[in-house]
Amino acid sequence: MQEASIREPLILGDKSYHQITEDICRPVEGKANKYWYWAFAFSVAALLWGIATISYTIGVGIGAWGLNKTVGWAWDITNFVWWIGIGHAGTLISAILLLFRQRWRMSINRSAEAMTIFAVMCAGLYPLMHMGRPWLAYWVLPLPNQYGSLWVNFNSPLLWDVFAISTYFSVSLVFWYLGLIPDLATIRDRATGMRNKIYSLLAFGWRGSAKDWSRYEEVSLILAGLSTPLVLSVHTIVSMDFATSVIPGWHTTIFPPYFVAGAIFSGFAMVLTLMIIARKVLSLEEYITIQHIELMNKIIIVTGSIVGVAYLTEFFIAWYSGVEYETYAFINRATGPYWWAYWSMMTCNVITPQLFWIRKIRTSIVATFIITIFVNIGMWFERFVIIVTSLHRDYIPSSWVMYHPTWVEIGIFIGTLGLFFTLFLLFARVFPVIALNELKTILPATGDQAKKDHHE
Amino acid sequence: MSNIKIKGVYDDQHKLLDGIRHLNSKGIKIDNVYTPFPIHGIDDVLGIKPTRISTAAFIYGLTGLASALLMMWYMMIQDWPINIGGKPNFSLLQNIPAFIPISFEITVLFAAHGMVLTFLLVSKLYPGSKAYIAHPRVTDDKMVVEVMMDPSKADALSTMFKETGAVEVIGQ
Predict the structure, then answer these.
(1) A230 chain-B contacts, CB cut-off 8 A
(2) Hey, are the CB atoms on A210 and B37 less than 8 Å from each other?
(3) Is residue B140 within 8 angstroms of chain A, CB to CB?
(4) Which of A76, A367, A447, B67 falls 20 to 30 Å from A15 in CA-CA distance?
(5) For the residues of A181-214, what is the DSSP string, one character each?
């Protein structure tokens, strides 16, 4: 398969196969620069603060959080949904774009998949901590026990979530690692001594025979086919945590597609935020080009617009339904005590991504970076608005309250940010951040021949 | 006299495919080909049969679906039916809408992991598996065609490799 020569090349700079290997292996084989150490120090500090606040929560109980009788879910579930959503872009890039034969994904799929795995790890921490007694977390599994056995409730969306998230995490991990195997073999064959031993273990003895590649390609394709409905099901089930309840503002059929679009929207924003930094720090500008940034920005316009339409639709339906509780929930979101959260969400998610219609903005690295930060913030507020504003004023006005996070909850959030960036920075030093061998298949023609043709 | 292994090393996928076709036309049996990345169309010229791993994945998926339904039927309907929020739990059929998400997840779980484990086992890929490295740069930019050949014919083969654009011929 060759890229047509009239198209803009996906990677720049007339690379040969060997040059790709050199460029992508450099961050793994060389020494880290001072930016990496600074970033790593910051991330580890944030992670340690997270560990401290989590330990405090386990020590004194969930009372350390700002939750109360009316708002029983707030900061933790907001962050859970936010992180899961961020993770979805990785699977979308590696699975859905593979099925659609979008070959520009090859420069970004590896790091986006890594992001998925780390984001799901961060997300998983929140329900675990909210259990209060995380050492009993295995109670969510259908295990025989001395109470009867008293089984878990398979009618509950929260249990569906247990199965969805664990399947999603383990399948994403396997998909990511399978893609890494041939690239780890490349690093193995270039290394000597202890490095060679370690990468030999990690590369599982990859040989690259024709039969291996034939099976490998089939397995990748089927895994993509399985991951595509999986990723859609995961956020659908996350949305059902809300949609199957009878809380005004939650009980809507629009939730599954709305959540999935929102997840992809926020995930692409996070991929862009990370990639814009990574391409600079790791000198990969020729692999992750303006073209990649522009294409991802186009996906942000599409998903951002879907999210915008969903916001307006649910507002309209809340009024059109004639249900006074439903109507009030939405009026309260926009004009009640949490109006600032609602309008932050509307500005960041509905207005800012529309700027990408302008070509100058969507091909500008600085503008993209700023807008993606806005989208990350907006999508965090979306979950906060959905969760807190629907709960804080329930059916009985006497139990109306406000929710404020405590320093412990904020600390855990900072901690998961630290965990995410720590893992990502380690990943960038240990594993090739671009699928280097897969990338070789999209050179305009083959290696040296291509160079010659190009110069003639 | 026993056969020896002769390797033709290419650095271009088109020359590699032409080289294999040339050997095929002379009736020379190719032992194996090692490449740094998947080569489009190599299965046809080497006569590699399509892998049946997708069928295996389908069977694993069906196993997952059956296990999920059996588990949920046993736990919620047979062993201890509990009335939770008035939702039906008298028969599998009535309860099936609530069982769809988990049935789907377990189907995917079994299909994905079963398929990948099968792939790793049949391709002998596991931690500690000894890699056969056909050429120091076979995972970088070199493609290696291996032929088991009578030493007396080795020179002719070597010429054949060279003529089709091999950058290097290694005989043992």
Answers:
(1) 105, 108
(2) no
(3) yes
(4) A367
(5) HHHHHHHHHH--HHHHHHHHHHTTT---BHHHHH
Q: Quick one: pLDDT band at residue A107, thresholds 50, 70, 90?
A: confident
- Cα–Cα distance measured from residue A453 to residue A444, given in angstroms and rounded to the nearest whole number: 10
Torsion of CA B104, B110, B113, B114, to 10 degrees: -140
- The alpha carbon of residue A337 is apart from the nearest alpha carbon of chain B, in Å, by 33
Instruction: Give every CB contact of residue A280 below 8 A, 6+ residues apart in sequence.
Output: none
ipTM computed for the complex:
0.91
Amino acid at A21: T
Q: Are A248 and A329 in contact (CB under 8 A)?
A: yes
Collect all residues of chain A within an 8 Å Cβ-Cβ radius of residue B19. Answer: none
Q: Angle at the Cα of A164 (from A158 to A165), degrees rounded to 5?
A: 90
B63 shares contact with chain A (CB less than 8 Å): no
Query: CA-based Rg of chain B, rounded to a whole angstrom?
Result: 26
Can you tell me the distance from the alpha carbon of A284 to that of A289, in angstroms, rounded to the nearest whole number?
A: 8
Q: Which among B37, B48, B47 has a CA at the least distance from the CA of B12? A: B37
**Residue the block writes with tokens 């089709």:** B164
- What is the per-residue pLDDT for A102? 81
Distance (Å) from the alpha carbon of B160 to chain A's nearest alpha carbon: 21
Determine which of A145, A165, A190, A214 to mutate to test the interface with B (most B C-beta atoms within 10 Å): A214
Q: Which of residues 408-447 of A touch B (CB under 8 A)?
A: 437-438, 440-441, 446-447
B120 touches chain A (CB under 8 A): yes
Which pTM does this prediction carry?
A: 0.91
**How does pLDDT run across A397-441, given as a tens digit for each residue?**
899 999 999 999 999 999 999 999 999 999 988 898 888 888 888
**Distance set, CA A110 to CA A17, A105, A114, A434, B107 (Å):** 18, 9, 6, 5, 25
Q: Is A101 exposed, middle or buried (0-12, 13-18, 19+ CB in 10 A)?
A: exposed
Facing residue for B75 by CB, picked from A154, A156, A209: A154
Question: Per the structure block, which two tokens stand in for B37?
Answer: 């990345």
What mean pLDDT comes out for the span B81-86? Answer: 80
pLDDT of residue A117: 93
pLDDT value at A452 more than 60: no
Considering only the beta carbons, identify the residue of B57, B115, B128 that sits closest to A201: B128
Ramachandran angles phi, psi of B148, nearest 5°: -90, 125
Mean pLDDT of A98-126: 88
Question: For residue A145, what are its two tokens?
Answer: 């026990």
pLDDT of B52 higher than 70: yes
Nearest Cα neighbor of A290 from A282, A298, A3, A305 is A298
Digit-coded pLDDT (tens) for A135-171: 999 999 999 988 888 899 888 899 999 999 999 999 9
- Chain B contact probe: residue of A167, A168, A239, A452 with most B CBs at under 10 A: A167
